[in-house]
Amino acid sequence: MEYETPLFFHVMEYAKRADRDVVDMVSGTPDWEPPESLRDAVREYADLESDQFQYPPSEGLLELREEIAARRGVDAEQVVITNGAGEANYLAMARALERDRGSEVILTDPVYPYYPGKTTILGGTQRFVATDEDGQLDPAAVRAAASEETAVIVVNTPNNPTGAVYPEETIEALVDIAEEYDAILVSDEVYDHYDLSGEFASALQFESDHRIVTNAFSKSMAITGYRVGYAIFPPTLVENAKSRHMLVNVATTRPGQYAVLHALKETGPDYFEANRQLLRERVETFTDALDAADAEYTTPQGSFYVMARFDGYPGTLENVERLIDEAGVAGMPGEAFGDSRTDWIRFALVTPRAETAAERLAAYFD
């Protein structure tokens, strides 16, 4: 079996080696502050008794699982604390595929590249369904692609890379399709706090044994390095997921869980709204500059990515490297996300230098 190293790493390394100043718009790493209560909890943790530096329960600290469960309207036994959303998605896809219900994984195009990568690792077969020009997914196209071999349907809302937010009727229809084909809908909702449209709907709104919801605090609390995520499983699927988590990772960081728990309890909605407002302002500034460059672009309904298409400049790796060398801006090639956006380049608006990057792009393509 051959594994491909994600292009993210190649582009980031290329940008680091550049002979000029480069604005990094490659990775989705928030540049804003984490909640102050989280910093306080980290300081507090350093002075706890030594037993608090040992293994936590494998499925996660009970109090954190209970806090998540109360907020999401599920039982704490359904919640598994994971090493970020990355492991949560791995566990969800693995659990869906090991039911011996087929090996096909339905993915969107464009797609976050880690989902196809996980499909390969788990021995599944990829089947892609194209979204429309706004990144919206038509449930009828998913139903047409589904078959008796369909084990998993993976969606991400708000979406990376398109910024689309799937409305309630789309999510409800996807749950229905999963039930109809005895498949599992895996709904990755890691950007839920960055819904700019008011249209976000969680798959948890629909009671079903055929959906798993994954999430993490990496983006919402600007702590991608803490690796605290979670998956919410139906009762029928959770025990084997806990076993796989224990065998692969043993447990998730105890101090990270402690800090997240305190931040959940003590951080008000103003923190999250301030970050959304910052993002709205960056989207406006960045897209204004793309207008000046006569570029076509997506305006995100959520998450923090903009995809842009420049006339005569397809989104290949070679062109992204040229953009680094000649304009001093690093984005991700559209070809990294599938076949449907190969003319596009994705930019992450998680840098205080987003305006500088916009000015450079406008000047370069003028």
Automatic annotation (TrEMBL):
Give the multimer and partner information: Homodimer.
For this protein, the record's SUPFAM superfamilies field holds:
PLP-dependent transferases (SSF53383)
Its keywords, alphabetically, are: Aminotransferase, Pyridoxal phosphate, Transferase
**CDD domains, alphabetized:** AAT_like
Q: Which cofactor does it need?
A: pyridoxal 5'-phosphate
Tell me which family the UniProt entry assigns to this protein. Belongs to the class-I pyridoxal-phosphate-dependent aminotransferase family.
Q: Which InterPro entries match?
A: Aminotransferase_I/II_large, AspAT/PAT-like, PyrdxlP-dep_Trfase, PyrdxlP-dep_Trfase_major
Offer one Pfam family short name for this entry: Aminotran_1_2
Q: What is this protein called?
A: Aminotransferase class I/II-fold pyridoxal phosphate-dependent enzyme
Q: Which GO terms describe its biological process?
A: amino acid metabolic process
Gene Ontology terms, MF aspect: pyridoxal phosphate binding; transaminase activity
Q: Which organism is it from?
A: Natronorubrum halalkaliphilum
Where is the organism placed in the taxonomic lineage, from the top?
A: Archaea, Methanobacteriati, Methanobacteriota, Stenosarchaea group, Halobacteria
The Aminotransferase class I/classII large domain extends over 21-352
